[in-house]
Amino acid sequence: MATKNSTETQEPSILRMHDLRPAPGANKDRIRVGRGEGSKGKTSGRGMKGTKARYQVRPGFEGGQLPLYMRLPKLRGFKSPFKKEYQVVNVGRLSELFPKGADITAEDLSAKGAVRSGYPVKVLGEGDAVAAFNLKGVKVSASAKTKIEAAGGSVSED
Fold this sequence. Notes:
Elements: H1 6-9, H2 51-54, H3 68-71, E1 87-90, H4 91-97, E2 102-104, H5 106-112, E3 121-124, E4 133-136, E5 139-140, H6 142-150, E6 154-156
């Protein structure tokens, strides 16, 4: 005589949304403090006197000491997000890098290691021009322009 297991005779039940219930003890009513002597009344678990018994202090309050946000200096000035930062090269440095003179662009200067690539370049007038430089695509100060043109070079700011 073969007996069937009880699991074989029962049909498997499918879990449905309306069958879901929270676990026993998972949902508790919150304790309403300060609502009478019968339920956490009087001090409501805050102890006796003091600031914390009365109400919470504001963020940044340091017990009457001058707070950190007032001790630090205010932000001053303004920085334009559109300001162009130029890489600076002097005429004397151009004379060292190109002693025989040449057609010079920003790419040539970055290849020689005088400036970083990808930034605009400005030539300033410190030093002497010993050869004729033909500058293309770089900014030039007035003193640098006079020195380069006096040495027989030219400047074109394209």
